[in-house]
Design brief:
The complex is a heterodimer of chains A (350) and B (193). Chain A has 350 residues and is of the alpha+beta class. Chain A has nine helices and nine strands. With 193 residues, chain B is mainly beta. Classes of the chains: A alpha+beta (350), B mainly beta (193). Chain A: InterPro entries: BtrH_N (IPR026935).
Chain lengths: 350, 193
Amino acid sequence: MNMQPRSEPKEGEDCFTLCVSSILAYHKVPEFCSVWKQCGLVYTEQGTEETARISPIYRATEKDLQHIHHIYLQIYRTDDQSSVVSHIKQLLLQGEPVIVWLDVFDMKYNSLYQLRHFAHCLLLVGYTDGQFEFIDEFYHLKDTIDEQTLINALDLTQTEMIEEGTQYVYNVVDSTQAVMDVQEQDIYDVIQMNLEVMESQHSNVLTTDHGRPLVNAHTGLEALDRYIDHIRHCTADVTLLTDNYVEQMYQDLSRISNNRYLFTYFLQQGISYHPSIEKLIYKYQYVAQRWKLVSNMALKSQYVEGEKRQHMLIRILHKLEDVRPLESELIEISHMILAKNDQEIEMEYL
Amino acid sequence: MEQYYPLPLDDYYNNNGFSYDLEQRIGNFTTFGSSYPGDEIPDQKDLIIEDIPFLFPEAKSTFNNIELENQRLSVPEHHYTAMSILGAADNGSYDENVEYHLNDTLVHRMPLALTNWTDQMPKYNEKVVYRCSGIYTQKGSLLTSKQTTIWLQTIQFEHPIHINAIVLPDNPCMHLFAITLKKENTNEHATTI
């Protein structure tokens, strides 16, 4: 496979979306960043104070890619190391690039090499004589890795991804039936879909990005309010601000930021359909930047302790309180776009 | 004749953005401990960039940039027409509001925007001041897959503002190495009268 790293990733692309984009770009799918459509807020608690989470996702990733764009994401999960490697080799032999999740601890070029166990995603694009060829778009790198190092790295046991239940996770993307011509009604339908989540409607049909039903979930601005209250409560007691707590906070907030950026690429397909969509895009970009700042502050809090960490959490709290009215504005603009569309449809039938 | 006031920032520096290989001094510009390769930054305190004088931090000083956290910078009371900055953002590009005060009164507020230090192209019309060959990691190696940049950004005020303090925003992903204020040209003003 003659795949090369892209010249410059787009804002909001994380390691996984970078891999998907690489495959779509390789298969000459135009506007490949515009396939990410869901953009909500979901808050869940699993009983303990540490496990309050917030996410932009409310349906399975593969469903998001299938909807409108007809792109099919095959997800493989297993605990059987030998079958993983043989299957990956088989896929590569068939000319399929393979998205693999791995632990960066033993990846020499990674900035976290031998510093932290951390789940990361890259693309395998070939195999020859015990060496796997890979592309890591995050580092704009194409290189090889020997089979044993890869096998060790593929084991996600010491990363947070083990919480999903399996040691090994890898993906293949089928874009042979991809539809990239987004119709006007598709734009409004997606805005409506996200709006319903942000206004806490239909919360009983929501799932995680892995397709698990969400239980006791709060959505939209209510989700953000609960998350802010939760942080306020935890910040009052420094013993609650554990390493795991701040790491999860960083994961959640950076995911929300990336999600808002990615959604603007989908909306860009609708600029010609409605005069206010450009305004919505501009607002989403600004909101995404604010979420990115908060996520970076959560990241920084991982590297301090005690009162310094508490101080950083208080700063984060203030930033989230500033984000809240911005998310509310997005809802108002979305309503305005949909209302004008309704009026235009009514006018058509008069 | 144009007059500038380069701010002495030594008392405000709170972050180390430069690493030095030979001395094994590792910076901490980003959260993961990455930094600029300090040997590629000229060791020069008095700089002139685009005809604007700056006071640049001394090489190998413990701290050499301001990581923004609502710092209040005292400046000589005067009418100023612009503020120029040498700086960069890390882990994203950001814009925030800077406040300009006269004593306890907010006189003016204007956005300051800085591009990510590893971006090739500026997002906010900055100019390249220094471009280094790579990123110096916490483990002491130089990654050359991405170059790193210190930018020149200038904020022009719509009209001269009378101030004696600048209040920076709260954004630990924005870093300032040097700040220079441009004074109102009072001679021209007198001539006009």
